[in-house]
């Protein structure tokens, strides 16, 4: 008989090891996949920082700006004119730790390249969705690294990571899409998505629509994640 892992409250760490003062409200965090003391932080004023948690040193800080306003769509330009406030909705490292992606509360995602000296370089800016970009994830279907985004416009989009070309658009959610969770099982690559009406859908990298349609418990959900070994 297999007994499930039973954890008690005593197993949970209770001591605060480090306190870092970011200076504004933190919206998203992600530790570097290899250098596990390097922390990526995104805030409610649109800036991102890299912290070395061990030494409490801030390695990099990038306040928000649109890199190329001339390339921005009219809806984005209008949104920025009407209200300049912008927040980071999600910031994540790429799987090899050489890139990071930032999804903002208005339209755009920005991709930076990172090198071990701590330097961040502008790589791609994509006017990805109308309204907020609620999540961003890296995936590698067909052995090609790509970016998956979702937004208030009820869409999920897949982008080439080199030049920013759009490869797929997935439509079918009837509410803003809140999170995307790319995964693969036995060489089948797919994306789970959740919307704020509690619908969970799954997509293959084709144009044939969603393959499954679940209701989340309570008809509400925000984020999805896979367990480290990929079974749950």
UniProtKB/TrEMBL annotation:
<keyword id="KW-0677">Repeat</keyword>
<dbReference type="InterPro" id="IPR015943">
    <property type="entry name" value="WD40/YVTN_repeat-like_dom_sf"/>
</dbReference>
<protein>
    <submittedName>
        <fullName>WD40 domain-containing protein</fullName>
    </submittedName>
</protein>
<keyword id="KW-0853">WD repeat</keyword>
<dbReference type="GO" id="GO:0006355">
    <property type="term" value="P:regulation of DNA-templated transcription"/>
</dbReference>
<feature type="repeat" description="WD">
    <location>
        <begin position="126"/>
        <end position="161"/>
    </location>
</feature>
<dbReference type="InterPro" id="IPR019775">
    <property type="entry name" value="WD40_repeat_CS"/>
</dbReference>
<dbReference type="InterPro" id="IPR001680">
    <property type="entry name" value="WD40_rpt"/>
</dbReference>
<dbReference type="InterPro" id="IPR027728">
    <property type="entry name" value="Topless_fam"/>
</dbReference>
<dbReference type="Pfam" id="PF00400">
    <property type="entry name" value="WD40"/>
</dbReference>
């Amino acid at each position: 008989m297999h007994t499930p892992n039973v954890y008690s409250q005593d197993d949970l760490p209770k001591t605060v090891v480090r306190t870092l003062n970011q200076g504004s409200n933190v919206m998203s965090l992600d530790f570097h996949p290899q250098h596990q003391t390097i922390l990526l932080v995104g805030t409610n004023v649109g800036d991102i920082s890299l912290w070395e948690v061990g030494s409490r040193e801030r390695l990099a800080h990038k306040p928000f700006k649109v890199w190329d306003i001339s390339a921005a769509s009219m809806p984005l330009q209008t949104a920025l004119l009407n209200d300049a406030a912008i927040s980071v909705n999600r910031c994540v490292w790429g799987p090899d730790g050489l890139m990071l992606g930032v999804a903002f509360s208005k339209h755009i995602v920005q991709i930076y390249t990172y090198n071990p000296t701590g330097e961040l370089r502008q790589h791609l800016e994509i006017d990805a969705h109308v309204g907020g970009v609620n999540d961003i994830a890296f995936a590698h279907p067909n052995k090609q690294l790509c970016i998956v985004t979702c937004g208030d416009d009820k869409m999920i989009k897949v982008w080439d990571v080199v030049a920013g070309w759009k490869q797929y658009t997935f439509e079918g959610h009837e509410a803003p899409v809140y999170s995307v969770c790319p995964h693969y099982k036995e060489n089948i690559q797919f994306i789970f998505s959740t919307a704020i009406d509690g619908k969970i859908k799954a997509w293959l990298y084709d144009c044939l629509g969603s393959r499954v349609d679940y209701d989340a418990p309570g008809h509400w959900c925000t984020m999805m994640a896979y367990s480290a070994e990929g079974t749950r």
